[in-house]
UniProtKB/TrEMBL annotation, chains A, B:
InterPro entries in alphabetical order: MadA, NagB/RpiA_transferase-like
Native organism: Ureibacillus thermosphaericus
GO molecular function: acyltransferase activity
EC numbers: 2.3.1.187
Pfam families: Mal_decarbox_Al
Keyword terms: Acyltransferase, Transferase
PANTHER family in the cross-refs: ACETATE COA-TRANSFERASE YDIF, MALONATE DECARBOXYLASE ALPHA SUBUNIT
Protein name per the record: Malonate decarboxylase alpha subunit
Length: 552, 552
């Protein structure tokens, strides 16, 4: 055995904590204990952040550390440059301004909805170096492995003067970003709406926090999961009826995740009406992993729902949640506790079903919301929308999807894709080749940005019917099944009426009639609430919709 | 729209918090604030836990809330009965005594190594109702969906008198179990080794905790990841050389997880010797997700390792970790921060490679550590040991496993299984049919308890060679590849020397010679440390092995 004693004595193994100590000392004249004065934030950031640092900036599809991002963009690029930014959701213009101004150089992210066009152009122009696209949960995972941050810029509702944090209903990803940074001798800077003497509860202890700063205005919060029932169409209601009958009832789906689509909002609003008429209360849709959707209120009030675990909060739902705390996860203070990491975990491993909408699907069921010229990313859909190979427990619905008698055969997670055969502007949803392949080349990605892979999709629902893809391993047969419900799109035109009839007989596809659904029954009158006002009524006045939805 | 006002006014939506309030009031004469006097624990548990409650009891492969489990077994079954226990690892006799005594009725768990024989018998005798077997992470997920606990019994190092907790190096699953319970108006009871005025750091804030109790002795902690290099054999060294050359170097594996096997301990101990001779430092094995293995010390000291993120701690490694905090995740106090949930997440989504050993493998590569008469469960291997369908980012190693030119083709996680063709007592590892199938029937499981499915395995390493399973989609060819390296086991005897030669030529299998490895070089002299004492020397005396390993 050879140990180089010289080597061992020479090397310091505490370089990060020593650098942190020095960095923190450099702002001692500017800060008051853990508190950064609001107007000194730019100056302080210029000292706390070093060129080349990996900086994780909080911002997902809802909550944004907006004061900190607005401040970071004001630092002097001569002092702070070449940052490697890690941002769940590139939502705000300044997220990309950082790159225009030369403050940041490289980015790793999950989702770029509002900025997807601009980022694609900037990648093409070489103004931004793309690390990679991720789902939320794999980006969080990398924070502990090969993307460990030097600095975290996050948002909370309140802090006390020691730096204990109350994140309130929108806890979301804050604890995970802070944990990765704090326990690796990184610097954690938190914007808060206010500093108070006593917090309603502590979501993150001061041991994990280096600095807090009172923001000039409250952090940005997007009411992303508010869907006005007025916009739900008869076609979406027809699809929702098929989903309830042909999937939830058929397989006994008890635990599930819904996304933000109007299709799934329609399902939520049909449970107390159509679902009730089928006698399904207590048999389906009891345990949910989803944000506090206002459209779920009628189902909750009607006694359909046992529990809801949330990724994040939803503007206007605060009082309703507090008054219905048997249903939600709340702190001792009664306000919602959300946690994006744990909700993604629960949504991947502990629920029977994921259902999502898509903008494009190919003949084999691969789908993507990425369209030409845009680098949109994923969010969390791919995690929940695949069959988790690490799952070992069986629920009835999962086990119901077992199709083989092999002694090692197992069940499958239900992964449902809902689509109308055409989007607006006569664009077919079913296409021969996904735009994602073009975006792969344009953005120089190694892999095409597919949202959900065909191999994982168990059911597709269009206005034509349901394809039970899980029943077939044959690629040719799956293609036929998809064509049979793809309407008059190029893929749908491939279908052969005779083979469609055979597929119906074999139960591989089902039309509404096969499920006992009359198309003429699919009317808006079936919705438990037809507009936001009726949701407020259902909530007994507890739901307080954001101004932009108060148009009744 | 119909709202039954009567229904709305009748129903209480705060039943759980009201019940909790009453329950807590019922112990007011027995407790002092949040502190339960040690000798009153049984009496207090009898009041805090109700018949039929779902109780999550901390206990994984390392850390056990042993005082609380010893106390729970003493409650009066007339007062507390029919509990539904949720335990990650059934490790202690009293975990099953609870069922013998009529205190508990149903169990959901992940792993039952030490108790796997007894639990199998109890299931067969109808003394215990089995919910299901899980991996850690899916069991945690269900705590937020359909296995929400009413009571959590967990362990921490220290508390202050407000109930803030210091879990120290062994944070592990405590925060996750507490979060699921505390934010659903459940009752959180924590055993601590001591109550102090000031904590080194806060790992869990008092807002999440209802009661603490000082245990009669420190919680049990198993040094599960300590492997004495004296027991590493020449065969394991040969396998380790093949792994380094034929997998890590070949694919450029930078981030990885190692389990507790001697095979992987050998890999760790060969990096500073054999790995160094190949010039691989900095090119492979830089970022790790694993417990603080003592056998990793020489690689760390030699500068191979950039970061280690841990599921849990390891007895005796405390001072070493604190002195090497550039490598580990530590709190401000310098002691390790582990987190089982986040480490599982990182191990699933953020690392290139998982490698594990197995006791049995069938001809198609399905493997299990479950053997006849035992219901052992899984732990975390299936989560890390599969190709995560939700992964979207590409590392070099992952992308290197892409085998198709399809525009939607992607890479793959490396899932490596290491096995010697025979276990002790001449039992073949490669078998026609897994014992797991027998256990499925015996324990009335819905699905056979397979640890790693053949479809997920990318490489198998035996003392004969490596099978590069990822290179072939053909079941017949995969079977041939496995047979070619299965020695003289029944499966191995199937192999045809001619086809083996063809497989070698095509690069589908590799023998040591094909990798430039001479079998005669595979000697213990290659190990950077040959015993525990040498590990202590490498650590500069910072590693302090548990007594049972101090036999030099």
């Amino acid at each position: 055995m050879v140990i180089s004693k010289v080597e061992m004595e020479r090397k310091s193994w505490t370089t990060r904590v020593e650098a942190k100590k020095k960095t923190i000392e450099s702002v001692q004249g500017l800060v008051d204990g853990v508190i950064i004065p609001t107007k000194r934030i730019v100056e302080v950031l210029e000292r706390l952040i070093k060129p080349g640092d990996r900086v994780v900036l909080e911002g997902n599809n809802q909550k944004q550390a907006s004061f900190l991002s607005k401040s970071l963009v004001q630092v002097d690029p001569k002092k702070v440059h070449d940052l490697h930014m890690i941002i769940s959701s590139i939502s705000r213009p300044e997220h990309l301004d950082l790159f225009e101004y030369g403050i940041a150089r490289k980015i790793d992210f999950s989702y770029a909805g509002p900025q997807s066009l601009r980022i694609a152009q900037m990648i093409e122009d070489g103004k931004i170096e793309l690390g990679d696209l991720h789902t939320y949960i794999e980006l969080y995972g990398r924070l502990f492995v090969d993307l460990i941050p030097q600095v975290a810029l996050v948002a909370a509702d309140k802090a006390d003067r020691y730096g204990n944090l109350y994140t309130g209903p929108n806890t979301e990803e804050t604890p995970t970003l802070v944990e990765a940074t704090a326990f690796r001798d990184g610097i954690v800077i938190v914007q808060v709406n206010e500093i108070v003497d006593e917090l309603p509860r502590v979501d993150i202890p001061s041991s994990w926090v280096d600095f807090v700063v009172v923001a000039d205005e409250p952090y940005e919060l997007e009411p992303l999961f508010t869907r006005d029932p007025r916009h739900i169409t008869d076609i979406q209601i027809l699809q929702a009826m098929m989903i309830i009958r042909g999937i939830y009832e058929k397989h006994g789906v008890k635990s599930l995740n819904h996304g933000i689509g109007f299709n799934t909002a329609a399902v939520e609003l049909l449970l107390p009406t159509y679902g009730e008429s089928l006698g399904l209360k207590g048999k389906i849709c009891t345990n949910w992993v989803l944000n506090p959707h206002p459209t779920l209120i009628p189902a909750i009030e009607s006694g359909w729902v046992e529990s809801v675990y949330c990724f994040g909060g939803e503007l206007g739902m605060e009082k309703y949640i507090e008054a219905r705390r048997d249903i939600f996860f709340t702190g001792k203070d009664g306000s919602l506790r959300s946690n994006r990491t744990l909700a993604q975990l629960a949504g991947q491993y502990a629920v029977d079903l994921f259902i999502g909408s898509t903008l494009q699907m190919d003949a084999l069921g691969n789908s993507s919301t990425v369209t030409r010229g845009r680098v949109a990313g994923y969010g969390g859909a791919p995690n929940m929308g695949h069959n988790p190979g690490g799952r070992r427990h069986a629920t009835d619905a999962w086990y119901n999807l077992k199709t083989s008698d092999d002694p090692l055969a197992r069940g499958k997670k239900l992964v449902v894709q809902v689509a109308e055969t055409f989007q607006e502007a006569n664009k077919p949803v079913f296409v021969e080749s996904l735009d994602a392949i073009h975006v792969k080349d344009q953005a120089k990605l190694r892999v095409a940005p597919v949202m959900i892979y065909g191999e994982d999709v168990t059911h597709i629902v269009t206005e034509e019917g349901i394809a039970y893809l899980y029943k077939s391993d044959s690629m040719a047969e799956r293609r036929e099944m998809i064509a049979a419900i793809a309407g008059v799109t190029p893929i749908g035109m491939e279908h052969n009426p005779k083979s469609t009839e055979k597929l119906r007989e074999k139960g591989l596809i089902a039309m509404p009639e096969d499920l006992g659904i009359r198309r003429s029954d699919a009317k808006r009158s079936l919705l438990a609430a037809k507009n936001i006002d009726e949701l407020v009524q259902w909530s007994g006045g507890l739901y307080n919709p954001p101004a932009r939805f108060r148009s009744w």
